Amino acid sequence: MGFGIEAEFETVFIGRTDELRNLQTSWNTKRMFGIYGMRTVGTSRLAKEFLISVKTQYDELVYVNFKEISDITQMYVNMCAQLKLFIESQTNDIKSWENLLFSAVSSSKREYVLFFDNMEYFLDNESAIRKCVDLIKFDNVKVVLTSTTTVLFANVRHVYHVCELHPLKADESSELLKAEARDVDYGEYLDRIVHLSEGLPLLLLMIASELRENRGMLTAKDMAQLLAECRLPILSREFYPEEDRVSHVYQQFISRLSHSHRSSYSELDYIPGSFTADEAGSIIDAPTDVEHRVLIPMVRRHFLNYDSTSRRFNIQGILRECIKTFFSLRNAHIPEVRVRYIKTFTDVMRSISWRYSSQEYASALADFGFEQPNLQKLLLEMQYTTQDAYTFFIQMATESSKFIERYLSGYAEKFYSECHRAADRYGTTMDKAVIDLAVGSLYTNVKGNFKEGFIKCSAALRILQRGGKSLQLATAYQRIGYNLLHQDENEEAINNFKKSLAITSVSGKQFNFIAIQSLNSLGTALAKLGKFKEAEKYYFSSLQKSRITLGHHHPNVGTALNNIGRMYHQKHDEATAMKYLQEGLEIKKKSKAADLSQLDSLINIANTYIAVGEFAKATQALEESQVIVSRQYFPPLSEIATINDTWGTVYLKQGQLDKAADMFDKAAQERGTMTYGGTPHVESLVNVIKVAAKKGDYRKCIQIGKQVLLFSDNVLRQRPQTIVISDCYECLANAYEKTGNISKAKVTLESLKLELTRLGSLHDCDSNNYQLLEIQKRLKYIEHNLQSDTFTNDNKRQRPV
Question: Pfam families annotated for this entry (predicted)?
Fold first, then answer.
């Protein structure tokens, strides 16, 4: 053999099972084998392993490394030398060397393999490519070639096996890393290191070298942190040979691009996530045929990845780092790329947010799964806005605020703050109203800060009132009403809902949606006050208007029916409640309503079944809701917590206390991450207390009860009519009594009495006789307890906790 490929390996060969098997299977039917992939992904190594595996099926191997030769003549001289073919008088005549080689091969009875490695260095030389292909016209010759650029030979397609080599899989990367640095304790950091290696053998070998050579001074934890913070420098240190330094390898790789392609590559790097051909065309300002002129050539050269399922392109992470380090955009060029980016992804945001609230909900969230990093960057770009770009951001604040609120809330507050500043420079007072309205909704619905939410919505209202009746004014009244409803300012909430309704009832079709919302909100507020007859009137008006405006089979009709069902559940008319809830869910399913809307119906159905003791049916509804949650791209924490809370109630009612405790604990943890110390979090904590009391774990009951009381001022300030604090006092009093601390039990009962008296006064002011009667019953029971022998016998021995 002309090349001792077996002798040169220092590292073990791991993975590539499928690729190697496919190459071996094709050996008898194919004549040419092309192995292509990104720089250092292992094309040469796979080719060599392949050739070793079939070495009994050929007689002579000729190896040419195109990285080390300068022209075709040198290629022929190299090949002839390996075959021990010489011309008596040295000549640079290409034809002479070609004839010598072709004549020797064609007249021989030996089987030859010609291995052309790193062929990308000669891809610009069409003659060299053609001559490599010409060699397979001889029956006793097979050609194996490797390259970072995929070469498609249409005229020999029937005998050509193409192997596109992708990065190693996670398990293969782990195996290689552990094989190269055997004595390292990776612990919990293995997966993180593997992820940051991106499945590229060069990176894995350099990481292993760092861990191995430092003799334990650099731990797996240290390496994970270094890779996350400065991956390129740590794997490119000066004491490594230049050809092994990661930065040098990939800098040279990118440098092979033409100037125009390199410029486009840097501009595409401005998109942090994956992208479509249309998005790429907009960013590099090449709207026509960008796919074939720019993207496909880059894919063939393995500078871009392409996912055929999603039809999206992306840049490998280590290449992004090299672009930012060595090929970053010139400062003068950044503003124009930024404006193109903002315009492009504003359109993407608008499309996704519009579809999110329509029957195309599923496709909107699927797209958002890909676009999330791009849209996060879009919101952050607001800090650099100019007058030209400002228009796009205000468009987003106006049309996409609900979507931003739900799925980009971590970036929303800074985004709106920058919008407000920009409005001072480029906008109008009406722009500020739009922004304040969005921020008010964010505080109300996401952060649970109702006071701040009210302040922001009120600031917007003051501005909008100057412009007369408008859709935005009706929306402002609606949102203020919703905020006040959460603060238990029920009468004021109703007044605002009525003001919103008054605007919409004398306006055009574009006001229909907000009119339906206002009717529904009035129903919710009146049902909360126990005024069910009035609530029915508004709920059914909302249902009728939805059907007239949207048709009988629309998601909003399903929502209206769901709300009516929930009202009957509040009235304890479970049979009627179930009728409307089931009908609403059926319409939502048929009309492909948003998953979260269907979840709301399923949870209401589960609660209704729990109320009548049909736990198997409640379980079925909850299991269906979990299926919906499992297919979400972004786990809806609020809904997951509600589902877990409902599971807890099912188990509690069934006497399965351990399971109930587990579910309530999960709900409390989830709600704590969203609004620590807020009403939903405290409600879950009180559920934990109730189960602990049932289990006789009074110490836990007291411990968590004290924690809840630390939050009580904030909870009652935000939600004055919540009963969660009174429930906590009741559980605590019982726990103190059970543990023999009678004085503490009595003090806690007195606190409970004061809290119930306060609640009774609030319900009396609201003329909420329905709730007032419930409070009075509880007060009567407390008075009876305080008069019992347990609390009137001063000589009773105390056992403090």
Answer: AAA_14 (PF13173), TPR_12 (PF13424)
Listed ranges 64-73, 212-221, 521-530; the one with the highest mean pLDDT: 521-530
Alpha-carbon distance 513 to 515, whole Å?
Answer: 5
pLDDT beyond 70 at 184: yes
Residue 217 has pLDDT above 90, yes or no: no
pLDDT at res. 9: 53
Question: What fold, for 170-235?
Answer: Helicase, Ruva Protein; domain 3 (1.10.8)
CA distance 702 to 660: 18
Extents of the domains making up the chain? 5-165, 170-235, 249-329, 428-547, 551-674, 683-792
Residue-level pLDDT at 2: 44
The DSSP code for 788 is: S
CA distance 195 to 599: 34
- pLDDT at position 4, please? 52
**Contact between residue 464 and residue 470 where contact means Cβ atoms under 8 Å apart:** yes
Q: Which of 261, 256, 185 is nearest to 224 (CA)?
A: 185
Class of domain 551-674: mainly alpha
Q: Which carries the bigger pLDDT value, residue 447 or residue 561? A: 561
Give the sign of the dihedral formed by CA 473, CA 477, CA 480, CA 486: negative
For residue 315, which of 348, 281, 291, 280 has the smallest C-alpha distance? 280
Are residues 564 and 580 in contact, defined by beta-carbon separation less than 8 angstroms?
Answer: yes
pLDDT greater than 90 at residue 269:
yes
What is 74-142 written as a DSSP string?
HHHHHHHHHTT---SS----HHHHHHHHHHHHHH--S-EEEEEESGGGGTT-HHHHHHHHHGGGSTTEE
Percent of the chain with pLDDT over 70: 97
Locate 66 and state its tokens. Answer: 């195109």
Per-residue pLDDT band for 790 (boundaries 50, 70, 90) equals confident
Helix residue spans in 239-357 (DSSP H): 246-255, 259-268, 277-283, 290, 296-300, 317-326, 334-356
428-547 and 683-792 share one fold: yes
- Specify the 3-state DSSP secondary structure of 143: strand
- CATH 2.40.128 applies to domain 683-792: no
Indicate if the pLDDT at residue 798 is higher than 50: no
**What are the pLDDT digits (tens) for 536-553?**
999 999 999 999 998 998
Beta-bridge partner residues of 34: 145, 162
Lowest mean pLDDT, pick from 247-256, 279-288, 606-615: 279-288
Residue 582, pLDDT score? 97
Q: In this structure, what token pair is assigned to residue 463?
A: 């501005």
Looking at residue 347, its amino acid is D
Instruction: Give the CATH number of domain 249-329.
Output: 1.10.10
Question: What is the CATH topology of the domain spanning 5-165?
Answer: Rossmann fold (3.40.50)
Which pTM does this prediction carry?
0.82
Interaxial angle between packed helices 574-590 and 595-611, expressed in degrees from 0 to 180 and rounded to the nearest 10: 160
Q: Is the dihedral of CA 234, 168, 325, 271 positive or negative?
A: negative
